[in-house]
C-alpha cells in the first residue's frame, strides 16, 4: 500500500538508530495487536529476528534490515523505555534508590534462540521489593501496587494484572 521504496526508507529503522547510540523503545501496538503478541518477550523476539514469531513461514521484514541484538532489545523494553518516559531515575534498571521491581525468568534470553525468547516463562515478579507473582499462584494486588503502576500500560507478562508498566520490571534470570 505504501510501496517498496517507502518501506525500505522508513519502516523498521529502530535497529539502525540503536546501533548509533539513540535510545529506542519497542512495544506492541495495543489495542490492535492480539493479547498473545503484546508481551515484552514476544516483542523482543520479533525485534531480534524481524520475524512474525506467530507465523513459522514468515520472512524477515523489512527484508534488508539488520535486527536488534538481544542486549539492544532488552534495553529497549527496560532502561531506554524508562528514559523515554522520563522515569529512568525510578525504573528501568536495578540501582540503589530505584524501585526494587524485577522479573525472574525460567531461561536466560542471551542463551535462547531469539525465535524462542517469546516462549520464556515468568517465574516471579517483584514490585517495590515484594513478590507480586509466583508461577502457579494468583497475583496479590494491593492499593499500593495500583498506585505505583498506572492502569492502561500493560506489561503483557500474562500474570493476571494488566496495570503494570513493563519499564518498571527488570530482567533477572534465576
Note down, in words, how this protein is organized.
- The chain starts with a helix and ends with a strand.
- A hairpin with a 2-residue loop joins β2 and β3 (130-134).
- α3 crosses α4.
- 32% of the residues are buried.
- The chain has six helices and four strands.
- Strands 3-2-1-4 form a four-stranded mixed beta sheet, with no helix packed on it.
- It is α+β, with helices and mostly antiparallel strands and 174 residues long.
- It has one domain (4-173).
Keyphrases for this structure?
single chain; alpha+beta; 4-stranded mixed sheet; 6 helices; 4 strands
Percent of residues in beta strands:
5-15%
Which blocks of ≥5 consecutive residues have pLDDT under 50? 142-174
Helix coverage percent: 10-25%
The helix count comes to: 6
- For the largest beta sheet, what order do the strands appear in spatially? 3-2-1-4
Task: Provide the number of structural domains.
Answer: 1
Q: Helix- and strand-based class?
A: alpha+beta
Mean pLDDT: 79
What is the β-strand count?
A: 4
Roughly how many Å apart are the termini?
Answer: 45 Å
Radius of gyration: 16 Å
Biggest beta sheet summary? 4 strands, mixed
Task: Give the ordered list of helices and strands.
Answer: HHHHHEEEHE
Oligomer: single chain
Tertiary shape = globular
